[in-house]
């Protein structure tokens, strides 16, 4: 390896110092491939991140070797190898805690009407690099000699925080339309700004995302949302029309503001709520009952989507007012539909839609007028989502009126204190009726079934309303309820 005193040489030295913990492994693998007559290079994210002083979670390599030849070399080095995607030329291997993936030089392209890539293996590193998504990912370190390869000016673009493509953007995005989503993700993760020609291509080709599977689109959206600055990526998606293909509910929030400005810009409000929710996330190591270690996908999705029911429910009232009655219920249904379309798992869909449904509940609290029964119901309705609901509700205050903001914050502080007091006294997280199913069946002389279930639900509601009253009072309430039921013979 040789480096010069040029600025590029100095940056390369910094990158190599960042990679120093991995250099013995890189050299070893490079020598093994060279001894077998093959080229090997570290490529893509690990090289880019080394220049940024970031530690990449992956070690990705490209090689002149075929998948079978890669497998043969790795078997002598690794504890285990596996087929990541032989048809795509990728073999994975693990040695101790180190996981690597090695891919044959390749050139892949999408058929204009197909979701599946057509793979062709290449025979040199430069041809492989020109097929990569962006110039900042088209840099490589040849191994074992650590020669830096940057035919498309990726290092300069990285310094300038510019996002460009090695080929023309139209060709790059036609090869894999998901790269447009990746551009938005890199804006959020790395604060890279797409070059004008990239923006133009994204805007003109956004509809091409329709050929990409929902699962791949979802995975890119998740990475964007979990980044440090998701707002910039989301704004780029809206600006270029990508959001219309992926999350059309987001640009739909750009409601035409009425002439008297009686309501906020819902789109800007939603992005601000997302920013504020992120700021409230707890440290990753947090373990408290209501703490939300960041980055938290459910909280971020709920913050972004909490008002998506507003466009469908907007009404202009007599006198110039604007209302959005029941937008939280409509929004919960819309969130459920969209997240299912994006193939999110059931738990995420359920949690996000529930938070959207509950996000206005606090506004009935006023200055503390809720009874203890209402506080209990707030906690039990939120269930394990209570910590996220706390943060979502606080984030939903974007008023510029400092006095109003302070009043809302103080009111929520009061609600949280009341929750903790009632929790401490009543173990709210495990509220159950004061008679169990067996006791209910014995008192009423009934067998297990729907009637018993109704009795149990009634006693649970009674417990929430009245607090802990003891088994005898619960028995009296059960008998009172039973006397009103047609099955009792008395009703």
Description:
The protein is an alpha+beta fold and 491 residues long. The chain has four domains: 1-160, Beta Polymerase, domain 2, CATH 3.30.460.10; 161-246, Hydrophobic Seed Protein (Orthogonal Bundle), CATH 1.10.110; 253-430, Orthogonal Bundle (Hypothetical protein af1432), CATH 1.10.3210; 437-488, no CATH class. The chain has 23 helices and 13 strands. It has helices at 7-19, 23-35, 45-52, 67-75, 125-130, 154-159, 169-175, 178-190, 196-205, 214-225, 230-240, 242-246, 266-280, 297-305, 310-313, 327-341, 346-358, 372-382, 386-395, 402-426, 437-444, 450-466, 471-483, and strands at residues 40-43, 60-63, 80-85, 90-95, 98-104, 106-110, 117-121, 140-143, 147-149, 162-163, 193-194, 315-316, 322-323. A seven-stranded mixed β-sheet has the order 3-4-5-2-1-8-9. Strands 6-7 form a two-stranded antiparallel ribbon. A hairpin with a 3-residue loop joins strand 8 (140-143) and strand 9. Helix 7 (169-175) packs across helix 9, helix 8 packs parallel to helix 10 (214-225) and helix 16 runs antiparallel to helix 17. The longest helix is centred in the last third of the chain and has 25 residues, at 402-426. Residues 258-262 have low confidence and may be disordered.
């Amino acid at each position: 390896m040789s480096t010069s005193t040029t600025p590029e040489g100095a940056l390369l030295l910094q990158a190599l110092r960042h990679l120093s913990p991995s250099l013995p492994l890189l050299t070893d693998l490079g020598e093994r491939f060279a001894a077998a007559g093959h080229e090997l290079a570290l490529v893509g994210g690990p090289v880019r991140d080394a220049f940024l002083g970031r530690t990449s979670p992956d070690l990705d390599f490209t090689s002149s070797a075929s998948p079978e030849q890669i497998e043969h070399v790795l078997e002598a080095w690794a504890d285990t190898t596996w087929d990541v995607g032989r048809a795509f030329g990728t073999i994975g291997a693990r040695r101790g805690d180190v996981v690597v993936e090695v891919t044959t030089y390749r050139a892949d392209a999408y058929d204009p009407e197909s979701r599946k890539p057509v793979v062709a293996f290449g025979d040199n590193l430069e041809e492989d690099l020109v097929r990569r998504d962006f110039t900042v990912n088209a840099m490589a370190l040849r191994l074992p000699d650590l020669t830096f390869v940057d035919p498309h000016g990726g290092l300069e673009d990285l310094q300038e925080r510019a996002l460009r493509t090695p080929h023309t953007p139209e060709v790059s995005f036609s090869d894999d339309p998901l790269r447009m989503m990746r551009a938005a993700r890199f804006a959020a993760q790395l604060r890279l700004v797409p070059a004008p020609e990239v923006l133009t291509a994204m805007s003109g080709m956004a509809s091409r995302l329709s050929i990409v599977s929902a699962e791949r689109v979802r995975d890119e959206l998740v990475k964007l949302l979990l980044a440090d600055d998701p707002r910039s990526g989301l704004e780029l998606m809206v600006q270029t029309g990508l959001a219309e293909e992926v999350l059309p509910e987001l640009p739909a929030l750009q409601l035409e503001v009425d002439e008297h400005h009686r309501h906020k810009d819902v789109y800007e409000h939603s992005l601000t709520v997302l920013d504020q929710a992120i700021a409230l996330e707890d440290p990753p190591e947090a373990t408290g009952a209501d703490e939300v270690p960041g980055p938290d996908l459910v909280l971020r999705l709920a913050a972004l989507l909490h008002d998506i029911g507003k466009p469908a429910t907007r009404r202009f009232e007599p006198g110039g007012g604007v209302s959005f009655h029941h937008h939280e219920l409509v929004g919960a249904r819309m969130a459920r539909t969209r997240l299912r379309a994006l193939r999110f798992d059931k738990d995420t869909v359920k949690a996000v839609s529930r938070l959207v449904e509950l996000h206005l509940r606090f506004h009935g609290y006023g200055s503390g007028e809720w009874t203890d029964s209402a506080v209990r119901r707030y906690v039990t309705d939120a269930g394990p989502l209570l910590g996220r609901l706390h943060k979502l509700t606080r984030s939903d205050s974007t008023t510029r009126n400092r006095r109003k903001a302070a009043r809302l914050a103080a009111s929520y502080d009061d609600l949280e204190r009341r929750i903790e007091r009632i929790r401490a006294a009543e173990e709210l997280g495990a509220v159950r009726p004061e008679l169990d199913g067996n006791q209910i069946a014995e008192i009423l002389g009934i067998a297990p079934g729907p009637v018993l279930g109704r009795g149990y639900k009634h006693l649970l509601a009674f417990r929430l309303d009245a607090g802990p009253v003891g088994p005898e009072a619960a028995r009296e309430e059960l008998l009172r309820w039973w006397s009103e039921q047609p099955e009792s013979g008395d009703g």
